[in-house]
Amino acid sequence: MVLIVGVIVLIAVNIIVLSASSKRYTAFGLERIAISFISPFQELVTRTMRFTRDIWHEYFYLVTVTRQNQILRSQLNQASEVSNQWQETELANTRLRTLLNFEKTITEMVVAAEVIGKDPSAWFKTVIIDKGKTDGLTKGLPVVMPQGIAGQVIEVSNHYSKVMLIVDRNSAVDALVQRTRARGVIKGESTDQCRLDFVLRKNDVRVGDTVLSSGLDGVYPKGLRIGFVSEVIEHDADIFHEVIITPFVDFEKLEEVLVVLEVQRHDMASRQ
């Protein structure tokens, strides 16, 4: 409001001065008075206009910079997403190559499957895979990985199956200690570890020993790795060792598995 009034006054005074000058009044004295009166207003108006112009320039500059930053940020996010997808593809290819190489080492027919779901319960250790009856899967088939045994198929639909992992409390695998051939049964603990039950105390079992599938349960092929002995606990009144097993398979990172088909499993059993 003050700026508007000042501009109006400045214009009015300029008009008066010009009118006076044109009529050749006492121009020198009047112009001197007018300049003294007008100059502060002219300076105020000029500085205000410059300030306003600078503000507008800064505003448009900031708007432009903000838009450029948004574009660059969007491009950076897209590049990061592409890089992330590339890394995931590389990791998936590495896992699949490992599965393929492992598949070549076993004589049984297998089907590769992807883990698409996990049981959220703390009591049950099961996963869902994307293969089912249409892929030749049936209940009871063993599920393996290059690192070792993963579990067993317990439910099958047309396109999906449920797998009970060896760490589930309901799981059991006939096993033996590789170094001494001591026999036992792997039982799940519903944690990241298992137990090797029914190992007689007379048998030599040590921390670090590798435990393999014996093949005598009719489910898992013989000689597949299960885990290693992480602890041996002795009880004076017990005739068995208490043996804790840490599986070779990291079940928290389970993404792809191999299912050993039943027809070849029967062939294997007939050869034993």
What can you tell me about this protein's structure?
40% of the residues lie in helices and 26% in strands. With 272 residues, the chain is α+β, with helices and mostly antiparallel strands. The protein has two domains: 1-105; 110-271, Thrombin, subunit H (Beta Barrel). The protein has a six-stranded antiparallel β-barrel with strand order 1-2-5-4-3-12. The protein is elongated, with a radius of gyration of 42 Å.
Supply the key terms.
3 helices, Thrombin, subunit H, alpha+beta, disordered C terminus, six-stranded antiparallel beta barrel, 12 strands
Say how many strands there are. 12
Assembly classification: single chain
Model regions low in confidence, pLDDT < 50 over at least 5 residues: 21-27, 263-272
CATH homologous superfamily heading of the largest domain: Rod shape-determining protein MreC, domain 1
CATH architecture of the largest domain: Beta Barrel
Helical content (DSSP H or I, runs of 4+): 40-55%
Question: What does the secondary structure layout of this molecule look like, with pairings?
Answer:
Blueprint: H1 2-22, H2 27-105, E1 110-118, E2 126-129, E3 142-145, E4 148-156, E5 161-165, E6 172-177, E7 183-188, E8 194-197, E9 210-213, E10 225-233, E11 242-247, E12 256-260, H3 262-271
Antiparallel strand pairs: 1-2, 1-12, 2-5, 3-4, 3-12, 4-5, 6-7, 6-9, 7-8, 8-11, 9-10, 10-11
